[in-house]
Amino acid sequence: xxxWFAKPPSAAPLSEADRAARAKLRVGIPxxxxxxxxxxxxLGFFQALRLSPRNLVFSSDTSDAQMRxxxxxxxxxxxxYPVKCVSGHYGELIFGQKRRIDILFSPxxxxxxSFMDGHxxxxxxxxxxxxxPENIKAGFLRERDVFAENxxxxxxxxxxxxxxxxxxxxxxxxxxxxxxxxxxxxxxxAVEAGFATLAAFTDDLRARSRDILEWCAREGRPCxxxxxxxxxxxxxxxxxxxxxxxxxxxxxxxxxxFPTDPDLLDWIFRADLAEGLIRHPFDxxxxxxxxxxxxxxxxxxxxxxxARVPWITCAIxxxxxxxxxxxxxxxxxxxxxxxSGTLFFSFQxxxxxxxxxxxxxxxxxxxxxxxxxxxxxxxAKLRHMDGPGPLQTARASAESPG
Length: 402
Ligand code: SF4
What we know:
Helices cover 50% and strands 10% of the residues. By secondary structure, it is of the alpha/beta class. It folds into two domains: 192 residues, Rossmann fold (3-Layer(aba) Sandwich), CATH 3.40.50; 193 residues, 3-Layer(aba) Sandwich (Rossmann fold), CATH 3.40.50. Strands 2-1-3-5 form a four-stranded parallel beta sheet, with helices on one face. A four-stranded parallel beta sheet has the order 8-7-9-10, sandwiched between helices. A two-stranded parallel ribbon has the order 4-6. Strand 1, helix 3 and strand 2 form a beta-alpha-beta unit. Helix 3 packs across helix 10. The longest helix is centred in the middle third of the chain and has 36 residues. It is globular. The site of iron/sulfur cluster has 12 residues, from helix 5 and helix 7.
């Protein structure tokens, strides 16, 4: 009985008119910044509100052409390159659609739900990322209100994904005027659906990362860990450097999607836990006491993992702009990785110009170093581990007959 009463109250049934209006509603979402790791939340959320998946439109990857065609002359004051690019995404959603969108939904993500929650001080977003929607919007209001002209509602709620209980009210207040018949109860259920969709997607990617690691352990092959922010997955911002490296035969892992299975983490951090250096595998207090930024925390944690896992013989650090968030992390990340003997390469100040020639030369150099050094790096790191781990156990069972 107590469990039954704990359920959120059912949403009132939707009228036929509201249902029909929602079926036609088109929502454009700029595929930028932290949307790269939260897009599944938004898909799950809007579909639970009975919007058609066909009417949920993400902008394309960042590109020069996108900025030239749709964002030119809309720049505002921000000097951070990943934030500046958002103008092109807004313009594409407003001017570049065959069928007009009704809502440009651009969440001001204040905090992120991170696997490290509970072991770090906070999981906040970069303040520039959080403020980007209001900042970029200004470029479309300068001479005249482009949103009103195109009959598009700009909806930019502040969202605290690290505090799920607050999210229904935040999204309900922002959407009640534009989603017909919306109630707070329905919004709460849709938020639950959003978190469930995001969790399922993330779990799937973590499982695929584990498959890669088990393959590396089985075959004695090296792989590469990418230490970067979510927007570096955008081909126009990260310039697909990791894809070029993968084409050289080295599987890629992103720290955001590293497997978090307890058996694996206990093995990776067993010595640190035994020595009392950390209280939990997600504890980064030993290397980064001011752990308030979600993406920074995950990069520092990824560096610790890369330093310990034998088959990760190289870590690649990507950075777009030497901002106050990134700058203090460069040296600690490099030192954590290099002190373990793991190879470390950094691409900093990536901007709009893909320096194709120099990236190609650097990728070839990295591949050469990996080829020459990976066997020694793997052997040395394996010697440091406390007994065979679950990846090697998986290797043994795969090899044993029957
Ligand atoms: S972390 Fe730095 S480079 Fe990235 S969005 Fe924030 S201010 Fe820009």
